[in-house]
Design brief:
Chain A has strands at residues 5-7, 10-13, 19-24, 31-38, 42-50, 53-56, 65-71, 74-79, 88-95, 104-105, 109-113. Chain A is an all-beta fold and 114 residues long. Chain B has no helices and eleven strands. In chain B, the strands form two sheets. In chain B, strands 2, 4, 5, 9, 10 and 11 form a six-stranded mixed beta sheet that branches. In chain B, strands 1-3-8-7-6 form a five-stranded antiparallel beta sheet, with no helix packed on it. Classes of the chains: A mainly beta (114), B mainly beta (112).
Chain lengths: 114, 112
């Protein structure tokens, strides 16, 4: 089965450090989402791309977060500088618009900022 | 803010019983999707129902959609211990470029 690959699976970093999370979407999918999951807030949509173009990043704190899709095989989410409140699980999901098959999620990156 | 809200927040049943989870949403949608998440894992897509559909089945899953009440339900029949997971509804708002927004989920525990 095709899968969405996220790296790293776990990341522990000190406050103030830059964090980069990577996602390899499924080949042929044209839509990529980034979500953050915490117990308190649930699943929050941070950003999403269609055909590599950013469509909406209104859920992302712009001063420290950035999301890019340099090519069709890679999406990145960066936090600089990181803060303890950024500790969460970050998920990437990809899918094909209008296919009716929903989206495939990666296993997530569990980020801990100390 | 969350578009979809699941109810109940938690549900505990015995193996073999049916489990029903509900989802309410606020605005018109193109489609509504249900996902499952096992502890510590990513979400898995279960079923998608379009706004012009009223009911859909997939194996032991049955999803209904009532657009007049802006609500959906997910029924799992003859539940198994392996169905223990959190279940989320997600909505694709009409005119929203297929932006998928999730509710906070229902935590289902199926006791053997």
């Amino acid at each position: 089965d095709a899968r969405v690959t996220q790296t790293p699976r776990h990341k522990v970093t000190e406050m103030g450090q830059e964090v980069t999370m990577r996602c390899q979407p499924i080949l042929g999918h044209n839509t990529v989402f980034w979500y953050r999951q915490t117990m308190m807030q649930g699943l929050e949509l941070l950003a999403y791309f269609r055909n590599r173009a950013p469509l909406d990043d209104s859920g992302m704190p712009k001063d420290r977060f950035s999301a890019e899709m340099p090519d069709a095989t890679l999406a990145t989410l960066k936090i600089q500088p990181s803060e303890p409140r950024d500790s969460a699980v970050y998920f990437c999901a990809s899918g094909l618009t209008g296919s009716g098959y929903g989206y495939t999620f990666g296993s997530g990156t569990r980020l801990t900022v100390v | 803010s969350q578009q979809g809200e699941e109810d109940p927040q938690a549900l505990s049943i015995q193996e073999g019983e049916n489990a029903t989870m509900n989802c309410s949403y606020k605005t018109s949608i193109n489609n509504l999707q249900w996902y499952r998440q096992n502890s510590g894992r990513g979400l898995v897509h279960l079923i998608l129902i379009r706004s012009n559909e009223r009911e859909k089945h997939s194996g032991r899953l049955r999803v209904t959609l009532d657009t007049s009440k802006k609500s959906s339900s997910l029924l799992i029949t003859a539940s198994r211990a392996a169905d223990t997971a959190s279940y989320f509804c997600a909505t694709d708002k009409k005119g929203g470029s297929e932006k998928l927004v999730f509710g906070k989920g229902t935590k289902l525990t199926v006791n053997p």
